[in-house]
């Protein structure tokens, strides 16, 4: 096992918060494998790259020699996690919960080493709790602390229904940490309240409190909402690699850097270096985007599938555009230049107002890089592909 400082340096990449970091350092200095908990309620059968943010971090813990406990919240699913919800979740049947949970094993094994992963169900202990046990648990937390939670507070302020069973959810998730004697629990930033409840209850049950590690929520392919099936902006772990590659290539360049940070654990220093290389022209943004997409697909699918995804993207998207492109010879215009001058010189548009309209609509790209600013100065070269709208494709000769 490498030194505590080296471990923290590796593990903190892509995290939002480590609460408290000094306690993590203290636990690591003991030189013993940590019990690292991650829970998932089987509310749906499919996992996507948003889930992979935390799962890939768990794999890092595994590779560093720590014990991963993957908790299936088959009991807590009957309540439904109220995190980020404006209304009570509809209840699932025991049959639906069981079917959803069964698919998790195969999907999680794409990222975690199944031989080094302990799978537990919280129904194992929560089903055994007597009313006296529930009353004891409720006595560990005040009502004021529960309703200070932002999700609950918002619903109360707006006079929206809030079920009393929902108030119990964070206590049950926290009690899972007591049962497992967790040293560390991971989750998305929307889980912070629940994770801290685990710390609180462990102290109430005379245990050393767990450290909490939270992660930013990964935006979906729309670049706005968090990745979710309900928003139809997700990249599923069971999709074909070709589909996944195409979806990755459809996101913005800036968002691709975020995917690199959260899914590949690329350091902020390395990302800043890459951005400078793109700005200077020494690194082509499209080439870099394809490299990141290839690396992500290799990590969560396979290198062979990533190679096929790349070739499929080239043949279907890039080569098709090149075949349709009208070749235009540009003379008397330097590079870099104002985007409008380039569009008008190549015949992509006839007026500045037309150029502005297309740019503001997000319909102008140069070598598959979107131009979002009407005042932008852009670089071009022989062979560059300019797209203005759906039908106007020009290749500079």
Describe it for me?
The chain has helices spanning 4-11, 21-29, 49-63, 94-108, 123-126, 131-138, 143-147, 150-157, 164-180, 192-204, 241-250, 253-264, 268-280, 285-300, 303-324, 339-346, 352-360; strands at residues 17-19, 35-40, 67-72, 117-121, 184-188, 211-215, 326-328, 337-338, 364-366, 369-370, 377-378, 385-388, 392-396. The protein is an alpha/beta fold and 397 residues long. Helix 9 (164-180) packs across helix 10 and helix 11 (241-250) packs antiparallel against helix 14. It is elongated and about 85 Å long. The mean pLDDT is 89. Helix 3 (49-63) links the parallel strand 2 (35-40) and strand 3 (67-72). The longest helix is centred in the C-terminal third of the chain and has 22 residues, at 303-324. The chain starts with a helix and ends with a strand. Strands 1-6-5-2-3-4 form a 6-stranded mixed sheet, with helices on both faces. The protein has a 5-stranded mixed sheet with strand order 7-13-12-9-10. Helix content is 48%, strand content 13%. The protein folds into 3 domains: 4-231, Rossmann fold (3-Layer(aba) Sandwich); 241-322, no CATH class; 327-396, RNA-binding S4 domain (Structural Genomics Hypothetical 15.5 Kd Protein In mrcA-pckA Intergenic Region, Chain A).
């Amino acid at each position: 096992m490498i030194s505590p400082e080296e471990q923290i340096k590796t593990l903190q990449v892509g995290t939002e918060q480590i609460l408290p970091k000094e306690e993590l350092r203290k636990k690591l200095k003991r030189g013993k494998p940590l019990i690292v908990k991650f829970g998932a309620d089987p509310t749906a059968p499919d996992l996507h790259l948003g889930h992979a943010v935390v799962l890939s971090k768990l794999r890092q813990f595994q590779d560093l020699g720590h014990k991963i406990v993957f908790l299936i919240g088959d009991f807590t699913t009957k309540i439904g996690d109220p995190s980020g919800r404006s209304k009570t979740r509809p209840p699932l049947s025991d049959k639906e919960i069981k079917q959803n949970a069964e698919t998790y094993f195969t999907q999680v094994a794409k990222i975690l080493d199944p031989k080094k992963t302990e799978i537990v169900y919280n129904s194992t202990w929560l089903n055994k709790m007597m009313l006296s046990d529930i009353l004891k648990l409720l006595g560990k937390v005040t009502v004021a602390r529960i309703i200070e939670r932002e999700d609950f507070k918002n619903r109360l302020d707006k006079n929206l229904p809030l079920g009393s069973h929902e108030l119990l959810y964070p206590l049950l998730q926290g009690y899972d940490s007591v049962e497992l004697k967790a040293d560390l629990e991971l989750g998305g930033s929307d889980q912070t309240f629940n994770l801290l409840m685990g710390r609180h209850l462990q102290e109430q049950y005379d245990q050393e409190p767990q450290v909490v590690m939270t992660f930013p929520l990964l935006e979906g392919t729309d670049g706005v909402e968090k990745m979710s099936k309900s928003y139809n902006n997700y990249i599923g772990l069971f999709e074909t690699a070709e589909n996944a590659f195409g979806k990755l290539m459809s996101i913005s360049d800036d968002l691709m850097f975020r995917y690199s940070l959260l899914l590949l654990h690329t350091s902020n220093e390395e990302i800043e270096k890459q951005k400078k290389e793109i700005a200077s022209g020494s690194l082509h943004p499209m080439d870099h985007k394809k490299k990141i997409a290839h690396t992500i697909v290799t990590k969560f699918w396979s290198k062979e599938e990533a190679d096929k995804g790349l070739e499929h993207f080239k043949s279907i998207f890039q080569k098709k555009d090149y075949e349709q492109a009208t070749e235009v010879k540009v003379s008397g215009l330097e590079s870099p230049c104002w985007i409008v001058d380039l569009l008008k010189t190549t015949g992509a548009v006839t007026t500045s107002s037309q150029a502005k309209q297309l740019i503001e609509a997000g319909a102008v790209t140069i070598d598959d890089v979107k131009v979002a600013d009407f005042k932008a100065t852009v670089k071009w070269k022989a062979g560059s592909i300019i797209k203005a709208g759906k039908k106007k494709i020009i290749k500079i000769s």
